[in-house]
Design a protein that fits this description.
2 copies of one chain form a homodimer.
Chain A lengths: L4 E6 L1 H4 L7 H11 L6 E5 L3 H14 L2 E5 L10 H9 L3 E3 L1 H13 L13 E3 L3 E3 L8 E6 L2 E6 L3 H19 L5 E9 L4 H15 L7 E6 L5 E9 L2 H19 L3 E4 L4 H12 L3 E5 L5 H6 L9 E7 L2 H8 L9 H15 L3 E7 L13 E7 L4 E7 L4 H23 L1
Parallel strand pairs in A: 1-2, 1-3, 3-8, 13-14, 13-15
Antiparallel strand pairs in A: 4-5, 6-7, 7-8, 9-11, 9-12, 10-11, 15-16, 16-17
Amino acid sequence: MALSCEVVAVGTELLLGQIVDTNSAWIGDRLAAAGIDSHFQTKVGDNQARIEEALRVALARSDAVICCGGLGPTQDDITREAIAAVMGVALERDEAMVDAVADVFAQRGREMAANNAKQADRPVGATFIPQTRGTAPGLICPVGAKVVYAVPGVPHEMEDMLERAVVPDLVRRSGETAVIRSRVLRTWGLAESTLAEIVAPRFDRLEGVAGAPTIAFLASGMAGIKVRITVKAADASAADAALDAEEKELRALLGDVVFGTDDDSMESVVGSLLVDAGLTLGVAESLTGGLIGSRLTEVAGASRWFRGAVVSYASDVKHAVLDVPDGPVVSAAAAAAMASGAARVLGASVGLGVTGVAGPTEQDGMPVGTVFCAVDVDGTPVVSELHFPGDRERVRWYSTITVLDLLRKTLLARG
Amino acid sequence: MALSCEVVAVGTELLLGQIVDTNSAWIGDRLAAAGIDSHFQTKVGDNQARIEEALRVALARSDAVICCGGLGPTQDDITREAIAAVMGVALERDEAMVDAVADVFAQRGREMAANNAKQADRPVGATFIPQTRGTAPGLICPVGAKVVYAVPGVPHEMEDMLERAVVPDLVRRSGETAVIRSRVLRTWGLAESTLAEIVAPRFDRLEGVAGAPTIAFLASGMAGIKVRITVKAADASAADAALDAEEKELRALLGDVVFGTDDDSMESVVGSLLVDAGLTLGVAESLTGGLIGSRLTEVAGASRWFRGAVVSYASDVKHAVLDVPDGPVVSAAAAAAMASGAARVLGASVGLGVTGVAGPTEQDGMPVGTVFCAVDVDGTPVVSELHFPGDRERVRWYSTITVLDLLRKTLLARG
């Protein structure tokens, strides 16, 4: 029976919808990866009685609670008080922690306002999770045989404390001594059901095998479908070896549908392939209006391989700037000329040309969602015709990632 | 004492963090605007006993519950069963609703699979909220003097049912006979604290006045800060008149910091100004890499006023394509030449040129966050120097919206 851990996110702004609570989802993902169940997640406002109520309800039905937010220095920050009340103890100020909070301010060249000392308070019997990114420390608060963790609401502070202290403590409590690691294979181009079908033989072989890796599909919209491998092993190096082995099995099945792992993005992968091949890229885009260029330049250091783009939105800009021949501009011929024109005008070794109909209405007799894409690597543009469902926004976004994927496959094939 | 209404979002994928629950935040915002309190919001998985538990906890402490998700046709969709159990009644199938669900499929040219008939089930004593956007109807389920609303988890279906049926029903239950309406003024360029200071005299005049409009600031990141006016009036036309009057008061204080209302975006407003003036736009962008073009072309019908863009990422593309003179490319002179070059090369009446340092490292001796922007309306480029804090992503996004705002102000001043 797995340990169960609820999440209580504290903040009136969350209830009012001024901020979307993304912390709970992030925590839920990490708990699942660590083999810990999370059956309920609650949002509650900055009201002590209601925070206590939420904690009591959660502790009555789960083994642990992660309480997120309300650890700052203001009057609104009352998570410590609420936890102390639930524990039935007083708050005490820790002088060493007062110094530690003051140190954080000193390192930023600022003096600590007096109210910040409050962040060094802890319920009697609780232990601190030292702060490494913000001013507020976290708390580990035993409540009978159960436990409440308090962490800041600022995402990067919360994430640090979760990974560093909370998840390891939960795993220890669960009696689990193994190391749990996961790796994500990033894919583009296949539906989740198709991916599942392709991976089915592997699923079948792993099923019921003790200690086998688990595989999960995470649909991630415009970021494609992520295939997550999770392994449990005696230590980190054994876990990494198991991940490597399973990645190899899945890649053998999925082939070039996998464009990267973990923090790779389609644009970072395209950039690396261009750098490796000693090539530079110029883009001519129309219906995407600059989206392709903007995604490519999200990659720091893109200037090593990205020359620029011509957004030829008006038809006569295609003719005048890119030498696209007269005739319909939503066509294979126009895409090919755009690719070659982009390479020539922008002084790039590779040209990418994209033209199509984003909607809301058809163009040149072509229905919304029709897209022509051309890649010109060695003076010979290769054109693909694509069709996307959906509204203007979806057509533009799907076009962008799909043409980058085509470019990736062209570069891979070129070797 | 305001009516209180909790939100219970149903779906294991929400707990696992595969999807972020944005529905609860959206509902929280709408409830607050209607004067209804929401003190707790809960996520729970597709497990009947736990959905019942979440509903019972919520009904014990609040007047109403909106239960979101789990109304589909699959085995996982068990919200109806859980509500019936909490009500202590059976489910009954409504044959008229079976026909209505089949009609939705027929309109889409598809036959209804048998399992969809389940969507016509309702707990005895509950009434349907007719579907207008999806296949599943919603439910209004009395539980003693309290009530549970069931709505689909698909955001646009949920939003439609909330606005059309749930919020009006809650307002009726609250005994409120007035009409509550709100309007958002979209702003860019000032911090929330500065906005609050400017609006302070108006706040002071409204304070304590019975029936006065309420004003709230909603920080919305790259979308700027929204100023929401909410009024309560005897009927819709009185509410609209009150909104008009208050909008006038706030605009008198805020001036051209307000760029639009409600569904306006910076790019739609720029587009309208260009169309009104009979002008077309060409853009030359560098650090933004295509973001400016991509935002402008989010607007359907942008082809009426957007000619295109040159993304001159490499310095020599600036020189070769746009005739930017030799010398540093992060400079006022380069921005001015880019604006004029964009207008000339793209055949536009207005040119916008943007060059700067997005990071992660400095360029031409200029620190990260330095941006030069030029607008060339009548052959004379006007240059602004801007400085943005933050990382690469923030510098690029802030640059984009800020230069569009400068273009807007230039067009407004030109009249």
